[in-house]
Amino acid sequence: MSEPGHDMHSASENEADGEPFAVLLRRLIGLRKLPDGRPYTVADVDKDLNRDQKRISKSHLYGLVNGTSEPSLEVTQTLADYFGVELEYFGKGTRARTLQNQYALLEKLSHDGVQEVAFRASELSGDQLRSVLDFIEFQTSRKDDPGNTSG
User: Residue 10's pLDDT is what?
Assistant: First the structure.
């Protein structure tokens, strides 16, 4: 970890007020896609940052991803610029939580096959789409009632 006073915030403060920096960074890395559709890796980010002559060492980047290092404000700004997010995404305030929740939802949607469902649903008629939505609502209500075995 860098010296106290040079961090954007301490790990204990961030965990008390939201997700740790490492979780937020891993989420952004996982959401970024290579041209062939595969998700980015830390090595891809490191390669891009080195190509663009950014000043984040490979070991520091891995430390940030693993939660063993905390970023300076300059490093945080570099990563925010690289990923195209507001600096506040890595913060602790109300706006930060809003941004973090939006990216968490994007992460969940990308992992749960929602893109495929949305693509296939785009070919349905209005009545068919309403039927699918009714079925989703039905399944959601069943999930809330673990004793329900009907259906």
Answer: 41
